[in-house]
Amino acid sequence: MTILVTGATGNVGRQVVEHLVKRGADVRALVRDPSKAEFPADVSVVQGDFLDVDALRNAMSGVSTLFLLNAVVPDEFTQALVALNVARSAGIERIVYLSVIHADVYVNVPHFAGKFGVERMIEQMDFKATILRPAYFIQNDLTVKDVITGYGAYPMPIGPKGLAMIDVRDIAEIAALELLRREQAAEPLALERINLVGPQTLTGSNIAAIWSDVLARPIDYGGDNTEGFEQNLKQFMPAWMAYDMRLMGERFIADGMLPEAGDVERLTKLLGRPLRSYRAVASETVASA
C-alpha cells in the first residue's frame, strides 16, 4: 500500500516523507522538479502538479492514502478540488489534509477561506480524512531574523491576543503519524479535525522579550502596523499575496490564534514528547549563526 505525499519538496512535505520512510512506509512523492527531490532511494518520485490532470492520475494510481498540501497561490482552491476529484476517481478514501487553524473564523483572508472551502469539499465528498489545522509556523519568523538582529525590532504584526505558534518539525511528524494511522487501519477512519498548536500562546511583546533574552540585548516589538507590513512584503512577493498577509495580520490582532482546551495535551500524547517551544527555536537560530 502506497502513501502519496504532495508538496514533497517544501519544508513540511519533505519532512513528512522522511518520517514516513523512517517508519517503513511505501512512499511516492509528487514534485514539479525531480532535480530538487533529494529523497531516500526507495521513494518513488512522480513529476507533475495539481493542474496537470494526467500527471495526477499517474501519481495517484495504486495509492491508498494521500497527504494533500497546497501552496498559497492564486488558484489554490482550484488545485485542491482537482486533486480531490482525481483522488476520488482513483479510489483513494484515506486523506490527511493540511489546512489552517481558524479557517472558519478568518473568513475574509483569501488563503484561509480557500482552505475552509477545501475542508467543506472533503466533508461533502465523504472522504475519510484527518484535517490538520496548524497555527502560525514558528519558522516563519526566520525570514525576519536579520531585522531582529540588525535593527533590534520584531516586525511581525502579532498583536495582543497571541498566537499558539508551532514548530514545522512537529507539524511534519504529526502529519506522518496521522498518515500511518489511517494507512494501517483495517477500515477507513471517520473524519477528524486536529488543531496543531505550540506549547504557548505568545503575543508580539512576548516574542520580543524572548529574543531580548536569547540575544542578551533589548529587542522591541515593532507594533501592529499592518499597512507598513504589507508595503514591506511587496518588496519580495506579489502584491496580492502581500495583501493576503496583511489581512491575516489584521485578524491576528483582532482575534489571535488560540488553542482549544486539551489541544496541547493531545499533541503531546500523540508525539510522546513535549512540543518544541518558540524559545528553543530562537536559541537554536542564534547558536547556529
Automatic annotation (TrEMBL):
InterPro entries in alphabetical order: Ergot_Alk_Oxidoreductase (IPR051604), NAD(P)-bd_dom_sf (IPR036291), NmrA-like (IPR008030)
Domain of life, per lineage: Bacteria
Gene3D superfamilies hit by this protein: NAD(P)-binding Rossmann-like Domain, UDP-galactose 4-epimerase, domain 1
CDD domains xrefs: NmrA_like_SDR_a (cd05251)
Signal peptide: none
All copies of domain NmrA-like, residue ranges: 2-248
Protein name as annotated: NmrA/HSCARG family protein
